[in-house]
Write a structure and sequence with these properties.
- With about 425 residues, the protein is an alpha+beta fold.
- The chain has helices spanning about 1-20, 25-40, 45-60, 65-80, 85-90, 110-115, 125-130, 130-140, 185-220, 225-260, 270-280, 285-290, 310-325, 375-380, 385-395, and strands spanning about 95-100, 105-110, 150-155, 160-170, 175-185, 270, 290-295, 305, 330-340, 345-355, 400-405, 410-420.
- About 50% of the residues lie in helices and about 20% in strands.
- The chain has a 5-stranded antiparallel sheet with strand order 2-1-5-4-3, with helices on both faces. A 5-stranded mixed sheet has the order 7-9-10-12-11, covered by helices on one side. Strands 6-8 form a two-stranded antiparallel ribbon.
- Helix 10 packs parallel to helix 15 and helix 13 (about 310-325) packs antiparallel against helix 15 (about 385-395).
- The two termini are about 50 Å apart.
- It binds adenosine-5'-diphosphate.
- It is an enzyme of class 2 (transferase).
- It is found in: Cell membrane.
């Protein structure tokens, strides 16, 4: 059906083209017939018949479908012929270089100029790209051994970039070749991050697992009949399984967040109620650590668009850290205030502790996965090193910002700015 439509459209287009091409012939015919009619006073029917004959002559050769396809191709061919190699190269977003049999640059697009400053037509490609893998790539295609090939190539300066470079000869016997550079740097960076993440996560799981395995061995061997040791070891094993469970929960939280591409729009979160329930849920931890929690909330409604469960997780992580790492300060202040600072007005939720604080050099990296200021303290405080990266992830989804201010010896303040709309 679709084919038939396309065919009919093709015929109509070809007929229109033919009529247009023969427009002068038609006009001359009409003028001639009208002139004869005027001079000789011939019947109107004869004039009409003559006009129809002319029209048929213009259209008739297009009647065969096969012929119409041929004409379509001809129109297309003229379209492509109008396209110069230069325009085509400019339309390609990746760096592209056209070169000849002597490996001399014939043309380079703007992306190539931007990526490899200092190239120009007439320059030798082999001098510009001296890396052995690039030389081998050029030799292969220039010797005619292969029509196309691909290599991975690293450009070191001005910044390190990883490219997948493909080369191929252009058309038949043009003696021209084209090089296209696909930037792989971002993909590589993501691959490296993923590999690091898996290595870190495995390491974090392996440590408690090794400890549990060691205690099982001791319990089956030397401590087999030692009731006191058994109790102590079982307690340690239980805390190690707890550590593994927390890590798995945090890993699942992160992966769930990554799988949900964006926030469900249209839900409002009552910050006063959410922060209150976070404080209630962490009451036992706060009293265990002898930390008093003070609330300083602005008056009136404190609502922002967002996901309540996710924001609960944010404040829970921040308040838990304040109670754990800022324990020595003895108190934590949680404030909610309207804020017009920054590009978007909104509401700031700030959790401030009075503990040892965070040295300045750690602050920029503190939200990275598995980054801790002090690994031992984090372990004894049942940390996984993932809390703040979960916070950052959720805030990014909310279009919100996290700012951290700290003075060593004078505590830390984690402030979340949530846009009001
Ligand atoms: P963890 O699970 O180790 O608590 P987080 O991502 O929540 O992981 O925090 C990363 C690190 O940041 C912690 O290990 C700790 O060293 C530091 N940190 C976080 N909050 C505070 C705070 N309020 N005071 C001092 N250090 C903190």
């Amino acid at each position: 059906m679709a084919d038939l439509d396309t065919e009919q459209r093709g015929i109509t287009q070809t007929m229109a083209a033919r009529l247009w091409n023969s427009r002068w012939l038609l006009a001359a015919g009409v003028v001639a017939v009208v002139a004869v009619y005027a001079l000789a006073g011939i019947s109107a029917y004869i004039v009409l018949a003559a006009l129809l004959l002319l029209l048929a002559a213009a259209i008739l050769p297009a009647a065969g479908a096969r012929q119409s396809t041929g004409s379509g191709a001809a129109i297309e061919a003229t379209g492509l012929q109008r396209l110069s190699g230069e325009y085509l190269a400019a339309a390609v977003a990746d760096p592209l270089i056209i070169f000849d049999r002597a490996a001399t640059i014939v043309h380079a697009n703007a992306a190539a100029f931007a990526a490899f400053g200092g190239i120009a037509p007439g320059m030798s490609l082999s001098l510009k790209f001296r890396a052995p893998e690039m030389q081998a790539l050029l030799d292969g295609v220039l010797s005619g051994d292969v029509a196309s090939d691909v290599v991975d190539y690293m450009e070191k300066l001005p910044v390190e970039r990883a490219y997948r470079v493909s080369v191929s000869s252009v058309g038949h016997a043009t003696d021209l070749y084209v090089l296209v550079f696909k930037d792989q740097s971002e993909t590589r960076r993501i691959d490296r991050m993923r590999a690091d993440f898996i290595a870190n996560a495995s390491h974090e799981l392996r440590t408690p697992l090794a400890s549990i395995a060691g205690f099982i061995e001791t319990l089956r061997g030397p401590a087999r009949n030692d009731a006191a040791a058994r109790d102590q070891f079982l307690q340690i094993m239980q805390s190690q399984t707890g550590r593994m469970a927390r890590l798995i929960d945090d890993l699942l939280s992160l992966s769930r967040l990554e799988m949900k591409p964006y926030l469900k729009p249209g839900t409002e979160v009552d910050l006063r109620q959410t922060v209150d329930s976070v404080i209630d849920s962490l009451g036992p931890l706060a009293s265990e650590n002898a930390v008093a929690i003070e609330r300083r909330y602005a008056d009136g409604p404190l609502h922002v668009p967002g996901d309540r469960d996710e924001l609960f997780q944010v404040f829970e992580n921040l308040l838990e850290n304040a109670c754990k790492y800022g324990q020595s300060g003895g108190r934590v202040v949680v404030s909610i205030a309207h804020s017009d600072a920054g590009p978007e007005p909104g509401i700031d939720v700030t959790i401030r502790d009075f503990g040892p604080g965070i040295p300045e050099e750690h602050i920029p990296r503190i939200t990275e996965r598995f980054y801790r200021v002090d690994v031992e303290t984090s372990r004894t405080q049942k940390g996984t090193g993932l809390g703040l990266s979960i916070v950052k992830h959720i805030l990014t989804r909310h279009n919100a910002r996290l700012s951290i201010k700290s003075e060593v010896g004078n505590g830390a303040a984690f402030s979340v700015h949530l846009p009001a709309h």
